[in-house]
Amino acid sequence: MLGLGLALTFMTSALAYQFDNAKDPAYPVLLPTPRNLTFGSQTALIDPCFFAVTSNVTMKEGDTLKVDPKVITANIQEYVTNKVFYKGSDCPATANYLASNVVGLTAEITHQTADLLPPDLEDGDESYTLQVNSSAISIVANQYSGIIRALATLAQLTKYSYSTGRFTYAVKFAPINITDSPRYPYRGFMLDTSRRFFQESTLLQTLDILAAAKFNVFHWHIVDDDSFPFNLTTYPNVTKGGAFTPEQVYSVEQVKNIVAHAEKLGIRVVPEFDNPGHTRAVGFDSYFNEAIRCFMKDWSNNVPDAYRINGGPPTGVLDPSFDKTYELLVGIFTDFNTLFPDNMVHLGGDEVLQSCFNENPNLAKFMEDNNITDYDQLIVWHMAKARYTLQNINRDKKALYWSNEDTFYQEYKDGDILVYWGLAQNITNMTDIYPNQKYVMAPGDYYYMDCGFGNKYGEKAWCDPFKTWWKIYSFDPSDYITGTQCLGSEIAVWSELNGDQNLNVKLWPRGAAMADKLWSDKVPTDLVAIVQRQVAFAEYLNDRGIATSSVVGRWCEKNADHCFAAYPEAKAEKVEELFAATE
Amino acid sequence: MLGLGLALTFMTSALAYQFDNAKDPAYPVLLPTPRNLTFGSQTALIDPCFFAVTSNVTMKEGDTLKVDPKVITANIQEYVTNKVFYKGSDCPATANYLASNVVGLTAEITHQTADLLPPDLEDGDESYTLQVNSSAISIVANQYSGIIRALATLAQLTKYSYSTGRFTYAVKFAPINITDSPRYPYRGFMLDTSRRFFQESTLLQTLDILAAAKFNVFHWHIVDDDSFPFNLTTYPNVTKGGAFTPEQVYSVEQVKNIVAHAEKLGIRVVPEFDNPGHTRAVGFDSYFNEAIRCFMKDWSNNVPDAYRINGGPPTGVLDPSFDKTYELLVGIFTDFNTLFPDNMVHLGGDEVLQSCFNENPNLAKFMEDNNITDYDQLIVWHMAKARYTLQNINRDKKALYWSNEDTFYQEYKDGDILVYWGLAQNITNMTDIYPNQKYVMAPGDYYYMDCGFGNKYGEKAWCDPFKTWWKIYSFDPSDYITGTQCLGSEIAVWSELNGDQNLNVKLWPRGAAMADKLWSDKVPTDLVAIVQRQVAFAEYLNDRGIATSSVVGRWCEKNADHCFAAYPEAKAEKVEELFAATE
Prior knowledge:
Largest interface: A-B, 107 and 107 residues
Number of domains of chain A: 2
GO cellular component, one term (chains A, B): membrane
CATH architecture of the largest domain in chain A: Alpha-Beta Barrel
Number of strands of chain A: 19
Oligomer: homodimer
Pfam family, one (chains A, B): Glycohydro_20b2
Signal peptide (chains A, B): 1-16
Active site (chains A, B): 351 (proton donor)
Strand order of the largest sheet of chain A: 12-11-10-19-18-17-16-15
CATH topology of the largest domain in chain A: TIM Barrel
Keywords (chains A, B): Glycoprotein, Glycosidase, Hydrolase, Signal
CATH superfamily of the largest domain in chain A: Glycosidases
Helix content of chain A: 25-40%
CATH class of the largest domain in chain A: Alpha Beta
Largest sheet of chain A: 8 strands, parallel
């Protein structure tokens, strides 16, 4: 009978554990997927004790490198030592030479700009070629950042392999030839360090993870209503009053370390001062307090709803009728200009609780004197003055703004960049209203990584449910904006419920889905390949001591082909239906 | 003007960091809340180098302790050393005596049973009294488990305090007098170790966390379709074939360690063999393979939907028409009987994919011969035989079963315990159908801790959304079953997306909400007090090196009174509305 028939086919393999038979993919699994990849069937062994890193830099015509060229070689060496040879090495005094013919890595930069990263995002060139054969590894890129992207690919290709009592590293599928470049120039990650403070070490590690997935922008939402952890040298009392505790402040030294670490990894740091809303923390300073509307400190009783955004913790709003408001902006943008070399600065502009303006009886007169008709126009007036204040300090700075369905009254000028956090379905409204702006897409219904855990009352939050790996993959900016008007996207992490302890398991590997999608050419999404990439990226992080979550069950991780084969080939439209039905 | 007025009140306090003014609760915050608590305003300092633990055991009449009484003192000493003095001690050879008058802890047990835990859950008595004054700590309990619950309370009361170069520990609010006992005898935690393997160290640490929140049952869903990590000594090839890898098996020694660690903490371990469904992993053994329906190993092509439960990984079903089916049960229950002293064994019985029975052409004849009319009755027939097989090996064993809306055709006998995992709203249907059973409540819409992260396709899962701390608090068994018919509840963790790396941050502190609710008298839920308990429990775990998540933002943690004061006093009914509106 049938059962018996099965049993017979069975006798021989009964003692094989399930995963003894599980087959690894017969090709390199890389996140993001390179544009062009050819590979072979050899395994290149690398002996870290006999591995030389050399680099050669040819400058772009007319440019002169501002740093010592040795810095570039040192940075590459550091990446190789820490990220590629991730388990270290054990080089004996008298080395017993190992079976490894890979003599080293040569990095060639052909059009380097004066700065490691060109001042403007759109002048960046992250393209690279990577070749790994049985004797050497070679990387060629136009700019420094391309070398770093190539190293990220190399690190994902390299696995620790213990052999004859010596640490070795193996690259399978050699010879490997990769020609690669990103689809979008802006692949960002936003972190809110105001609702909760993150240790410097967490930010440095997060930058390493971002680089591994080829993100290239860290949008640092450094202050907000809840706390002011930025060490404001121009007005130190703002920090002293607004920070949670003296320890929960990013010192000048720490900010410099974070910016330098990011630059080394080809990542731009975009600081944000969200204003005029979300500025309650400033009000703890006695000098600026009078310019903060809705500010309360010593709560005599309940916090009035008029002081909260959707029932959240109390907010504060900078009052445009006070000169001090712009003294503050001068102070903050002066510090930003000193510490953050990138030409992008985010000015916020979201969730201005207009009812707070009613608190100032003199505001009506002020508006009348300035021909400001309503609070919407008052905010437009303020944001224009904020931009002016920024560019008056450094004319090369570009202003970024939060944009969603509630801010379509806003007015922008050429060069302003809109970071859209509204619903994906309303993106087209925005691009109709502002046809001349450039955009970064951070739709809350796809890219808000903190969603799905409820609001502060443990009830449903506006952006629930949780954005699964597949939900993230299902959004593509090119479905909404074509051409170069879209700079790219960013995933956002608001930190009410995130901290040093759970950030990694909450974000990874799923957060890498955005970087994967935006780097690679848009292709029909193959569920098996996607899961293999998510699993491979999680293993990459685990190999380096970073905790992650899982996107599928263990059986499906090891049997992705069988687990998903029955599923109809997934296309974005299909996913849209699925989520339309489930939200 | 108003702004200026505010500024004036301000000049003095501008340099105070926000949390310098945050007030800690002026009373002991304990999770769960003790039934009766009185406290004072002194601080009792404890010097771990001068702290004696003594215990005195008076046996229940007619009982004789099966273990050396010294074991009880040793267990108490171990709890004090590891959990109360959580940062250790530094006792110099010649101690410079410290300003501490707390000379030690005396534990008095008045009605101890022969076993550390009485054989039957309902004979357990976890009540205790705890007194902490400036000179001594005393605990009195009827049984061993009461002492352990008291120690959990003491550990939450005790904070590390460094003083004059010596480690000391402080108990604030002394003198403290607590009289305490649980509302429900079964406060359980279920973990699935088949979809993903958990290290022994993870299970041991989880037991410590459970004890801290006064859980008292570990329901171990040890095997399932995906893998068979239980080391089956009676049929070792079942393990060899069904385990993921040789390393992902719980050895006999490890199971003994886990059971012993649990017993030491007053926690019962209830093993489960889910059958006849969810048994695919058994089919890898050539001997039992013929008794597993729907089993496929070498997938020639896609896994047929007929082999999956809701499109999940393939399942398997034990065929009642094979004698081998009951040989297997004898083997498994024999091993269970050897390794698990508790009298509760879970037989599963959920999600039997009946279409699999069609695979056996001989089954119709078998059913006819046994007067079995349909597949529902076939399953009833099998579960009865499974219970008989269990109790034939040990007549004292009680059978637990999964029960939900799909199993209301099931038939039970006195002593059978139903673990209900259906929707809360359908609990009353069940109790109408089975008025004579006892129940453990694990409603999937409140207590499934793995929900909210989507299914394996990254789409919505049946039990989404995420169960927030507040959702968990909003369920109370007494709203559905009164009296002793309800033994209690358990939270369930299915492990497709959980593993060693993310279990703690996914579960804690919110998972403790159930233990909190079921231990304490049912009271109107005070949001501020709940959040203070959740935050305190998270800090308890953090102090002991265990990572957690956050239930509210940092500002609300430190300003719970202001953060939640504007919120209408939360009652279960109110919460029901909220969730009805948001799901």
